[in-house]
Amino acid sequence: MMDWTDRHCRFLHRLLTKRALLFTEMVTSAAIVHGPRERLLGFDPVEQPVAVQLGGSDPRELAEATRIAAEFGYAEVNLNVGCPSDRVQSGRFGACLMAEPTLVAECVRAMRDASDMPVTVKCRIGIDDQDTEATLDRFVDTVVAAGTDALYVHARKAWLKGLSPKENREIPPLDYDRVYRLAARLDLPVLINGGIKTLKDAEGHLAAVGGVMLGRVAYHEPMLLSLVDGRFFGDTAKPLDLREVMVAMAEYAERELGKGARLNNISRHMLGLANARPGARTFRQILSVEAAKRGAGPDVILRAFDALEPELALAV
Question: Does 123 qualify as catalytic in the annotation?
């Protein structure tokens, strides 16, 4: 989710679900150690629980980045060993590290020693021509022995040459059964990711794994998150309806604009809130076009809501 999610997105998603664990986009350990830490790691406490997702391959640097992230109060630190982009490969991190399980294990140990946060790993079922049975088991066993607390497994191979990141999310076939077999032989949580488009699909996976990770579907269809707490956590509290979400986001935008944020950096995460509702096209246009204009304020968010058909706007 690089270049997609940020703290504004997490604030929106936390309005919709109080219980799901939210993730930062992947941040490199080098950027955290040498760059603007508050801009990279700062978040509103209301977003908790939040996991920080790191990219890197230098154990000492990852340990330092973990220590810094712990000072910000994150609930979990996750090492990304699944991203297939060329930009990531050139820095020797992401999915290419699945070919170096010993190095990944060294990174996990260093991260564990740096803080009390749970340390988790996100990976694929393999890369390129790797055998997704024996090779994945060897990789996972090495990383688990180093002390990882959980695994997030995207149920596709990553092809490091010849496929774009987008193609790597669509072309390699999904193999959910391989993740199920992995979960069955491990004594730690295995969470499944990849191609999961509905909450019904997620429920089906939970019979075999310890959890489900949603990515782009949660971004493009954010209102489905409003069903998560009741459906998966037994929460009986009434979720916010769309009107309440829009009012809360307008109030949030007013605070953030006072700190120098631009409205379109907030509203861009809201475009899918009214999907399939009459007036949704105008809703999206206001949030994308009007919000980008100089001096745009929180009233734009409320105007977008008012663009929905009145009887439906009152009912959501």
Answer: no
| Domain-embedded: residue 215 | yes
Please give the DSSP secondary-structure letter assigned to residue 122: E
> Which residues have a Cβ under 8 Å from the Cβ of 123 and sit 6 or more positions away?
81, 82, 95, 98, 139, 140, 143, 151, 152, 153, 154
Lookup: tokens for 261: 């944020």
3-class SS of residue 34: helix
Domain membership of residue 2 (yes or no) is no
The number of folded domains in the chain is: 2
pLDDT at 151 over 80: yes
Domain residues for the domain of 132 are 7-233
- List, for residues 29-43, the tens digit of each pLDDT value: 999 999 999 999 999
Catalytic residue among 9, 83, 107, 123: 83
Distance (Å, rounded) from C-alpha 167 to C-alpha 162? 9
CATH number at residue 216: 3.20.20.70
Give the pLDDT mean for 207-232. Answer: 96
Q: Are residues 201 and 292 in the same domain?
A: no
Q: Is residue 208 part of a domain?
A: yes
Q: What pTM value is reported for the model?
A: 0.92
